[in-house]
Amino acid sequence: MLSIKNYLQVFFIGLLSVVCLWAIAWWPIWWLVLPILVLWSALSAWSYYVNYRTEIQFKQNLSLLITTIFGVTALFVLLEWNFLRWFLLLIGSIFLSLQFLRSGNEDQLLSFQQKPFRRLKMMLWVFNAYAFFTFLFAVNIFFPVLPFFILTIIGGLIAGGVSLIIFKMYFAVPLKSLVFWGLLIGLIMIELLWLLHLWPLGYLVLGALAVWFWFIIQLFIRFYLSPQGIDWRRQGWFLLINFMLLFILLAWVVRWI
User: Fold this and answer.
1) What are the distances in angstroms from CA 95 to CA 88, 125, 137, 190?
2) How far apart are CA 17 and CA 11, in angstroms?
3) What is the 3-state secondary structure (H, E, C) of 101-168?
4) How far apart, in Å, do the first and last CA atoms of the chain sit?
5) How many helical (H) and strand (E) elements, i.e. helices and strands, does the chain have?
6) What is the model's pLDDT at position 120?
7) Is residue 48 within 8 Å of 69, Cβ to Cβ?
8) What is the mean pLDDT of the chain?
9) Which residues are CB-contacts of 184 (< 8 A; sequence separation ≥ 6)?
10) Neighbours of 120 (CB within 10 A)
């Protein structure tokens, strides 16, 4: 059962996130944004360490917390519409605070009790991948002198690393047995990122396409590694619907530059 201390901690992290993002919105100068980001990350990490340092997955969950802070900040800085920025401020603060909304160690929960936390972490890792892919495309647009192959390598490392973390959430196997699949996903994403950066689209759309392809790739590899394997009858419909949505998005929704 959640205690008053847990609710106070959730409120503190949510308020801290709102204040930091509000400060970044009002003073978008790198030498102010950087210390705000460091202070925000340090206070959040300290709060998480005090309460959950005995968890088996402590390092993984702490890395999710810190990367979510950086992901929210990167996307917040890149958004040009005030409505979306304030919406992200609200949603990002809520999701960051939700990571503290539990009364004990996640490892001590029953299987059905762990599912909501696992889905929340999965969703946050997908969001972080989108934020970082978008940031890489934005860097390529704002700093065209920087060779994009360097950014694709960084993107491949991000894709492979996040995929490994997600695989570890679902499979209780040694990490080294999953490294091959992480490397494979990373190499595929390096090629896809290079291909996507040639398309005349904005960085928000390119980031969405990159995370869309990455999610489908890692999802099917995860299905392949599971004992049930890939149910092609069901997943075939999933692929067909996704390709139809992708066609609609590219044909009638997004604006080509």
Assistant:
1) 10, 12, 25, 29
2) 10
3) CCCCCHHHCCHHHHHHHHHHHHHHHHHHHHHHHHHHHHHHHHCCCCCHHHHHHHHHHHHHHHHHHHHH
4) 53
5) 9, 0
6) 84
7) no
8) 88
9) 221
10) 15
CA proximity to 135, closest of 189, 208, 44, 190? 208
pLDDT, position 74:
95
Please give the Cα distance from 237 to 1 (Å, whole number). 41
pLDDT at position 250 is: 83
Q: Distance (Å, rounded) from C-alpha 45 to C-alpha 83?
A: 29
Which tokens in the block code for residue 171? 């499979």
Q: Which two tokens stand for residue 173?
A: 């196997």
pLDDT reported for residue 172: 80
Residue in 67, 73, 20 with CA at minimum distance from that of residue 45: 67
Alpha-carbon gap, residue 101 to 109, rounded angstroms: 13
Contacts of 2 (CB under 8 A, 6+ apart): 101, 102, 103
Over residues 78-89, mean pLDDT: 91
The number of beta carbons lying within 10 Å of the beta carbon of residue 65 is 19
**Which of 52-56, 98-102, 125-129, 219-223 tops mean pLDDT?**
125-129
59, two tokens: 């390092």
Asked if residues 169 and 91 have their Cβ atoms less than 8 Å apart, the reply is no
CA distances from 161 to 32, 117, 119, 222 (A): 30, 20, 18, 14
Q: What is the pLDDT of residues 159-215, one digit of tens each?
A: 999 999 999 988 888 888 899 999 999 999 999 999 999 999 999 999 999 999 999
Mean pLDDT in residue range 33-39: 94
